[in-house]
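Hypothesis: this fold can be encoded by more than one sequence.
Test: take the structure tokens below, design a sequence, compare later.
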């Protein structure tokens, strides 16, 4: 335990120095959020952080994945159903109602991950993710119609959907594993990672500690 405390302190000191250098260079902070469209807790994290992090001088780097979790996990279906109950509770705490009652298969929404991964980061990409996740979990019926999401895409970007980019999704999955998390939603915040849906306020606190809150 003492060695862990020392290691975390060193990592935090390096993060503070790195963040100070980023500010001197005129660069923003960064929150990498690894999420899955078929994961209701990812919807909680993306929708909340898109609003919560407006108070910080940071880039919310949304990185969609499809494959995650423990390989050949025999409890994966139970976990998917538990995630439905967990997300419903978290949404209710925020005054939102989750209408979907059954899990979504990862392959059903993989096209959304491939579209987003094929598109440069920016406000339009983040806005699309928020709208798509709201439709999936807070508004839509049981079926996922790709044409509906294509129309949302065209309204956000004023252009057709991109060529799907599976390699970019796989790159996100590899990076998530390299960072340490094994499942979504996972936030990487300058050297420290969080299961994002359960640690939304702690993510904001870390950004505060690292000096990224916008001056009033």
């Amino acid at each position: 335990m003492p060695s862990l405390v020392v290691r975390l302190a060193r990592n935090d000191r390096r993060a503070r120095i790195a963040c100070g250098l980023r500010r001197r260079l005129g660069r923003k902070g960064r929150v990498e959020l690894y999420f899955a469209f078929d994961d209701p807790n990812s919807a909680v994290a993306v929708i909340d952080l898109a609003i919560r992090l407006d108070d910080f001088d940071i880039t919310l780097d949304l990185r969609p994945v499809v494959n995650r979790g423990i390989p050949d996990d025999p409890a994966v279906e139970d976990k998917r159903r538990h995630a439905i109950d967990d997300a419903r509770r978290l949404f209710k705490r925020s005054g939102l109602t989750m209408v979907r009652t059954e899990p979504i298969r990862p392959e059903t929404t993989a096209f959304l991950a491939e579209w987003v991964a094929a598109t440069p980061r920016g406000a339009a990409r983040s806005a699309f993710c928020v709208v798509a996740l709201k439709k999936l979990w807070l508004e839509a019926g049981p079926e996922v119609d790709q044409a509906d999401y294509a129309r949302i895409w065209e309204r956000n970007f004023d252009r057709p959907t991109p060529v799907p980019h599976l390699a970019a999704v796989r790159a996100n999955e590899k990076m998530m594993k390299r960072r340490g998390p094994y499942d979504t939603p996972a936030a990487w915040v300058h050297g420290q990672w969080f299961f994002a849906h359960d640690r939304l306020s702690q993510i904001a606190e870390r950004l505060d500690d690292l000096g990224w809150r916008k001056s009033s």
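Residues 1-9 have pLDDT under 50 and may be disordered. Residues 35 and 176 are 10 Å apart (CA to CA).
Hypothesis status: open.
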